[in-house]
Design goal:
Layout (H helix, E strand, L loop, with lengths): L9 H62 L8 H12 L7 E2 L9 H11 L11 H12 L10 H10 L6 H17 L2 H11 L1 E3 L2 E2 L1 H9 L8 H9 L14 H17 L9
Parallel strand pairs: 1-3
Antiparallel strand pairs: 2-3
Helix pairs in contact: 1-6, 3-9, 3-10, 5-6, 5-7, 9-10
Length: about 270
C-alpha cells in the first residue's frame, strides 16, 4: 500500500471530530446571539416606551385635570391664546398690549351671558360639550357646497383658548375634543360660561367682557345694556376685524339678529338653571 493510501490514526480522527464539533458550537452560538438580538432590543426599549407612556399620560390627563380642578375655584392666570399672541408679537418685534381683567359671575350683566349663548351656542345648557345637531347641519351645508360654518360649542372654545393654539389641524381638533370632555367633567356649566366670558377675545389683545366693556363702552360689565351685550357677542367670530365700539353695518345687523335670538330663548331665564 502506498503512503497516500495510509488511513489516519484513531487519534488524528478524534482531533478532527473535536475541531468540527467546536466549529459547529461556535456557529450555533453566533446564530443564538443573532436570534436573541431582537428580543433583547425589545426588552431594552420597554423602559423607554413606559416612560413615554407615563409622560403622555401626565401631559394629557393628570396635568390638565389638576389645572382644571384649580381653575374651578380660581381665575386662570392666562390662556394658551394669550401666551401665543404675546410670543408672536415679540418674535415680530411688534408692541402688544394685553388687557385681561377677571370678572366674577355676579358682576357680569345677565344680558352678556345670554347674548354669547344666543350668538355662539344656543344648545349650551343641554349638550355635554358637543352639539351633534349643529355638527350635522354644518356637514350637510358643506356637502351642498355652501359656506363652511363653525359648529364649535362654548365648551370647545374654552378648551381651545385655555390649552391650544389657533392653528387648524386634525391633531389640534383631537386634543380640543379631549380637553372638552375633561372640562365638562370637572366644571359645572355656569363655570364654563363664566370662564368663556372672561377669556374670549373681543378685540386685539382685549380678553374678557370686563376689559371689553371698559375699553369699548367705558363702564363696568354689570352695567352693559342688551344692545351693548349683543354688539360684543356679534364680534366674537372675528374680533380682529369686527369692532363693537365702531360697528359696521354687518355688526349692527348681526347684533339685531342676536337680540331676536335672546328674546326667543327667554332672555336670562334660559340660563337660570345653570
Amino acid at each position: 500500500m502506498s503512503d497516500s493510501e495510509i488511513d489516519p490514526s484513531p487519534g488524528e480522527a478524534r482531533t478532527d471530530e473535536v475541531g468540527a464539533g467546536e466549529a459547529a458550537s461556535e456557529g450555533s452560538s453566533d446564530t443564538g446571539e443573532k436570534e436573541g438580538g431582537a428580543p433583547g432590543r425589545r426588552l431594552r426599549l420597554r423602559p423607554v416606551l413606559l416612560g413615554l407612556s407615563v409622560a403622555v399620560g401626565l401631559l394629557l390627563v393628570v396635568l390638565p385635570f389638576v389645572l382644571l380642578l384649580a381653575c374651578r375655584f380660581v381665575p386662570p392666570p392666562a390662556t394658551a391664546f394669550m401666551i401665543q399672541k404675546r410670543m408672536a408679537a415679540f418674535a415680530a418685534g411688534e408692541p402688544y398690549r394685553l388687557d385681561y381683567r377677571w370678572t366674577g359671575w355676579g358682576r357680569i350683566s345677565p344680558h352678556a351671558r345670554i347674548a354669547v349663548v344666543a350668538a355662539e351656542d344656543q344648545n349650551f345648557p343641554r349638550h355635554d360639550g358637543f352639539d351633534v345637531h349643529a355638527i350635522e347641519k354644518a356637514w350637510e351645508e358643506r356637502e351642498r357646497g355652501g359656506r363652511v360654518r363653525g359648529a364649535s360649542t362654548i365648551s370647545q372654545q374654552v378648551a381651545k383658548n385655555l390649552f391650544l393654539t389657533p392653528d387648524r389641524s386634525f391633531l389640534r381638533k383631537g386634543l380640543e375634543a379631549w380637553f372638552t370632555v375633561l372640562i365638562e367633567f370637572v366644571w359645572p356649566k355656569r363655570r364654563i360660561l363664566e370662564v368663556y366670558l372672561n377669556v374670549a377675545e373681543f378685540g386685539p389683545g382685549i380678553f374678557g367682557v370686563g376689559a371689553a366693556s371698559a375699553r369699548f363702552f367705558g363702564k363696568q360689565p354689570a352695567q352693559l345694556s342688551r344692545y351693548e351685550a349683543a354688539l360684543l357677542a356679534a364680534v366674537l367670530p372675528n374680533p380682529r376685524r369686527l369692532h363693537a365700539d365702531r360697528p359696521s353695518a354687518y355688526v349692527r345687523e348681526r347684533a339685531e339678529w342676536i337680540l331676536g335670538q335672546m328674546r326667543q330663548l327667554g332672555e336670562e331665564e334660559y340660563l337660570r338653571r345653570l
